[in-house]
Write a structure and sequence with these properties.
With 65 residues, the chain is mainly alpha-helical. The protein contains three helices and no strands. Helices cover 88% and strands 0% of the residues. It is elongated, with a radius of gyration of 20 Å.
Length: 65
């Protein structure tokens, strides 16, 4: 429980300090961060699907048919 409280406090401190350095409101910094995370996850999923071994194997086999 103590560790969770410490992590939560450090998270709030990090958002607060980033918001102060960028001169932006804290909720905007938090929401922008969530948007960036969503975009990165989407890109990772696309790349992961493109490099999936089964799919890649099927694609290579189709080239040689």
């Amino acid at each position: 429980m103590l560790m969770l409280s410490l992590v939560h406090t450090l998270h709030k401190l990090a958002i607060w300090s980033l918001a102060r350095s960028l001169n932006m409101p804290e909720p905007l910094v938090h929401d922008t961060g969530m948007f960036v995370v969503a975009q990165v996850v989407t890109i990772e999923n696309r790349v992961g699907r493109a490099l999936c071994t089964k799919r890649l194997l099927r694609q290579v086999r189709s080239w040689f048919r």
